[in-house]
Amino acid sequence: MEPSLKNTTISAPPLLPATRSLDVWFSTNLGSVTSQFTLDTPLKRVTYRSKPWWSELLSMLRKAYNPALRSSKRDRFDAALLASARAVSFAYFKAIKKAKRNHWSSFLASATPKTGWTAKRFAVGCPSPRWSELTGTSTPPELNRALLLGGSFGVRYSDS
Predict the structure, then answer these.
(1) Distance between CA atoms of residues 96 and 110, nearest Å
(2) Residue 59: which of 22, 33, 103, 96 has the closest Cα?
(3) Fewer CB within 10 Å: N-end or C-end of the chain?
(4) What is the residue extent of each domain of the chain?
(5) Is the pTM of this model over 0.70?
């Protein structure tokens, strides 16, 4: 936002501020600043479920895919309906894969040293659990007891 706000020019206030002239000056300058904010602010709220690769084309394909899927399930013996549902499904999922692939390649192309770790985390995925599951431990107290007793993986210890 800073570069666009720096390029925004605010006119000088009127020399003899009358109520009407001051109101006009303020509303025109407020309108220019507000327009910059509305251009740079996303219209939808970004959540953890937001997908940056989603597009209007995918929304249209999804709107075609859902009714085709429902109608193919309703009339399972209509060969033409099943073929068209398969074609719509194939186009929809192919478009999703293409959008994800394009987003990932553009993300890697614009990666900086600061976003390099993010790219690595996305590529590697979730880290493996720190502790392998001990045999017979399903609750934290049981896991604690097994570790304090020098728990060997795959060996069960008794409390006696």
Answers:
(1) 21
(2) 96
(3) C
(4) 2-40, 56-124, 128-160
(5) no
